[in-house]
Amino acid sequence: MSLGQPWEHQHGRISLDNSNSHESNLLEYEAFDVLSPRGPLDEGLSVLSVDMRVAENRKDHYTDNFKSSSLIVRRNKEFTISIKLDRAFSAEQDDVQLEFLIGSSPNDNKGTYITVSIGKGKHNRHWKGRVVEIQGNEVTVGITPNASCIIGRFRTFVAIVTDFGRQRTQRNQDTDFYVLFNPWDPADQVYMDKEEDRQEYVMNDVGIIYNGEYNNISSRSWNFGQFEEGVLDACLMVMDAGKVPLLFRGNATEVVRQGSALLNAQDDKGVMVGNWSGDYSSGTAPTAWTGSPEILLKYASEGCEPVSFVQCWVFAGVMNTFTRCLGIPARVITNFFSAHDNTGNVKTDIVLDKDGKIDRSRTKDSVWNYHCWNEVYMKRPDLPENFSGWQVVDCTPQETSDGLYRCGPTSVNAIKEGELSYPFDAKFVFAEINSDLIYHKADKLGNMKIIYVDTAYVGKLILTKKKDSSRYEDITSNYKYPEGSLKEREAMQMAERRGVSSRDYLPLAEAGVTIELQADTIKMGENLKLTLNIKNQTSQTCIISAIITGCVAYYTGVTSTTFKFENKSATVEASTTESLTIDVKALEYMPYLVEQSNLLFVVYGQVEESETSLSTMRVVNLHPPELTIKMTGSPMVGKELMVSVEFLNPYNFILQKVNLRIDGPGLILTKLKYYSQILPGASVKYKVLLIPRFLGKKVLMACLDCPLLRQVTNQLEFEVVKDENRNDLKE
């Protein structure tokens, strides 16, 4: 069967159970086929109540952060249930069974109907059970779900079994409980051995996502909110809507592969609609979101209708919530200068016209300033042992995989070694970080010629949030060996043996001259100074002519209006460097800016003496104006705290249709304030009252967004302490 397609029995007649929300319950009384009177028989034993011991169990299972009244446990770890009977329980004489059901067609063979016996019956098969304690008429039972059981919401029944039949408790939603993956247990597929890793990649409910460009890294806080009320049910609903069979929900590899397809709505009714057009009038702009709970809860409350609109970092943020919520360790990754290789040939082709400008009609590949995906941590039983660990998963819809828009999981270690024949989608990920940037130039007749190859531009820097820190960690070396090293060449040769096209265009004739473009870091609306450094490494003087083209661009590398076109030339002495300055005025680029305010400069140069060509690109990300967050009062659990968010419009144009969001897990549900306009020079101030619910480090984040101004964000980090006048507070 291919993943993600309609799931049916091998004979095509019986559908597999693929919903956690649909349920079929057992009869209260089930008579056995014996020659005796039918009907419930009172053998002097009946169930009076069932206590799921929620508080104690959840603390033991690291699930007490969930905003839910239900029991939530993890695989292969015992939890206890107390059963009150109408008389004392006898292990030698009584047969009491606990029955756990999931889905609409409970089946013992498929792990969707579990029976655990205490007393004289021996019916245990999937899960372990034992009597922990008997006190009077109350028996406490220990239940251990096995290490590979289905994750999801189970229903609980207690049955008294006699020679004549089985008498069950009534359906009671208070005894429902959830089973999650268990990264604390070595037997679980998602086990992590370090507690600090589990705290960061499973328990941390707020993170940082990096963006901007390679030489000018920006960041924004993101509310993962995996413990927020309703989020767990929403994550299970995602799999229900995608008809993921319950049978496969115990396999972390299957769950994340399905998730990478179901979180985008490209080819099904998935969670989020990707949009890179710049027109978001029929939904929310991707840059306006502050976290995952708002999106997941909107999807769930509106009958699984896809949420509009998002881009790669939002896809990655929500995927991180989906996986952490279910107990799979995960983190968000940013790859700077990420190739979107439509053909998977590890070549990114940039076509210049006869004037040295990018030919938009003939340039099909693109290099994203940055692209965000996820890594999930798990054993891969389907791969050699050294390819377990971090796996790339990407739900941004770029290319199809087995017929659906999804990507991964693919082993990070396998990518580094060029071992691209293992599932899933290794060639595509390899191309994102290893593509050669190939510049072609068309002559007057339209004939194409390769003029320059840059083997080091793509996959320049790969980052993730550092553990227990607001700084980033450079993990580029996890994905690739140093450029030009022996190991890097060996990995590329391995990739070619695994089906990647050979680099038959290398090596090109060396010009002996290199060019580099440097740029100031500036705010949107300021003038910009570019510096073109020309380094002559030959033993003779060279004359270099250069064409500099400037255009506005989306962060995906897709170019829009060209606003700058300038010719420069320089005579560079042997073994020296000459610098040329290009002035870019704000009034040149401001009328043409598109979202996220990126400028793309392309240089096409020629060395007259050798008639060789050079080319390079540089992205300049313009910083947005500031958003200020101020707090009045001391942050204490249970005490009111006033927060104000302020913004001043520094431009000479009106900002219209402005949305201001405030968000923070454990602090406040997402607040949205709308302003029809903010006049030039005018300021706005939005005040909110919040009451922190838990002790510890917290992050409050704010985002201002409108069609003319995107990515205006800020965050406030602080420690919530205990109010000494109260002693009923939880850490």
Automatic annotation (TrEMBL):
Residues engaged in binding Ca(2+): N434, D436, E483, E488
Keyword line: Acyltransferase, Calcium, Metal-binding, Transferase
Entry-linked InterPro entries: Ig-like_fold, Ig_E-set, Papain-like_cys_pep_sf, Transglutaminase, Transglutaminase-like, Transglutaminase-like_sf, Transglutaminase_animal, Transglutaminase_C
Cofactors, names only: Ca(2+)
SUPFAM superfamilies found in the cross-reference section: Cysteine proteinases, E set domains, Transglutaminase, two C-terminal domains
Broad EC category: transferase
Biological processes per GO annotation: blood coagulation, fibrin clot formation; nervous system development
Superkingdom, taxonomy of origin: Eukaryota
Listed SMART domains: TGc (SM00460)
Active-site annotation: C312, H371, D394
Region annotation Disordered: where it falls in the sequence: 1-20
GO molecular function: metal ion binding; protein-glutamine gamma-glutamyltransferase activity
Positions of the Transglutaminase-like domain: 304-397
Keyword tRNA processing: no
EC number in record: 2.3.2.13
Coiled coil: none
Entry similarity comment: Belongs to the transglutaminase superfamily. Transglutaminase family.
PANTHER family: COAGULATION FACTOR XIII A CHAIN, PROTEIN-GLUTAMINE GAMMA-GLUTAMYLTRANSFERASE
Protein name: protein-glutamine gamma-glutamyltransferase
Species the sequence originates in: Sinocyclocheilus anshuiensis
Lineage, broadest ranks: Eukaryota, Metazoa, Chordata, Craniata, Vertebrata
Gene it is expressed from: LOC107692765
